[in-house]
Amino acid sequence: MSHSLRVVFAGTPEFAAAALAAIHDAGFPVPLVLTQPDRPAGRGMKLQASPVKRYAEEHGLSVAQPPSLRRAGKYPVEAEAAINLLRATQHDVMVVAAYGLILPQEVLDIAPLGCINIHASLLPRWRGAAPIHRAIEAGDAQTGITLMQMDAGLDTGAMISEVRTPISADDTTATLHDRLANEGAKLIVEALVELERNGKLASTPQPAAGVTYAEKIGKHEAALDWRRPAAVLARQVRAFDPFPGSVATLEDGTSIKIWAAAPEPAQGGDAPGTITSISPEGVVVTCGEGALRLTQLQKPGGKRLPVREFLAGFALATGQRFQLPEAK
Q1: What's the pLDDT at 326?
Q2: What is the helix (H) or strand (E) element at residue 132, kind and residue range?
Q3: Is it the case that residue 73 has pLDDT exceeding 80?
Q4: Do the bridges between strand 213-214 and strand 127-128 make them parallel or antiparallel, or are there none, so unpaired?
Q5: What ranges do the domains of the chain cover?
């Protein structure tokens, strides 16, 4: 099926590439794709194209990679060129998903039918950069995708539609990301079909109550603070998979990444960070409340292993302690 509604797409990671693929597969013309400049990545720190750029190039779509779209920013020449390109590209609507650059009002005003953003939370909860991680970390029972009309604020625009999904006890950021990317891709195609049919989309302002901000995940957050409750640490482990991983550091300074863990009642009154039992079922560590059973671990330079395999190549002893990170 082919459509006449022309869509400029702006996005960068896998989450956005899923939406671009769905829009393109549905037959909407995509005259231009905006994505972030190639970034150094991996061991060799070679420049790598974003998932959105890779998809666009494989499907013959035009790509632009301005470092900024703000005339008043550090790259005024490149910003002006990108704005001129957008103005010269005939299109009806702009779709934005995890693009990572600020879009000033003059950019939002270019598309005749406005800009639609695909955001991975149930707004106004978790506006900002890391909504999937923060929903898991906070223990939210559900999350979802919200489509919204973009305005110049940070995820403050009027809501067009949403889809909800429960967060299960074994969801990680990786599993929830993939589910939400698929849901977002379906939802945006439905919205574009309706926009093409009706020339507009109904939207509702976000409620003023319940606003939270999902700060970007920092590597400094990776350290497990054993003074916290085991249930909170178990959520952190799930939220920080695949990035940045949760880190437990032994008193000798060896850092172990923890990829899977479950809370359970504590046995005895050991200090937080103490290993109280070791078995093929898990390494149990005392927490501020309860204990955490570590079931998938990774030694420096190693790979993720189930606890039984990990222990075959790494000696741990009961009574050993993990460091407590400096309290913030």
Answers
A1: 82
A2: helix 131-137
A3: yes
A4: parallel
A5: 7-214, 221-312
What integer pLDDT is reported at residue 228 of this predicted model?
96
Is 161 annotated as a binding-site member? no
Q: Which residue has the tokens 């829009």?
A: 23
302 touches 257 (CB < 8 A): no
Residue 124 marked in a binding site: yes
CA distance 155 to 103: 11
Strand partners for 279? 282
| CA 270 – CA 267 distance, rounded (Å) | 8
In the three-class reduction of DSSP (H, G, I as helix; E, B as strand; rest coil), residue 80 is classed as: helix
2: left (phi over 0), alpha (psi -120 to 50) or beta: beta
- What is the average pLDDT score of the chain? 95
Q: Are 7-214 and 221-312 in the same CATH fold? A: no
CA atoms within a 13 Å half-sphere pointing along the CA-CB vector of 138: 17
Angle CA 124–128–131, to nearest 5: 80
> In the structure encoding, which two tokens stand for residue 179, read together?
């589910």
Question: Rounded to an integer, what distance in angstroms lies between the CA atom of residue 247 and that of residue 30?
Answer: 42
Contacts for 60 with CB less than 8 Å, ≥ 6 apart:
none
User: What CATH number was assigned to the domain covering residues 221-312?
Assistant: 3.10.25.10
> Does the structural domain 7-214 have CATH classification 1.10.8.640?
no
Is 123 assigned to a binding site? yes
The token pair at 222 is: 């990776």
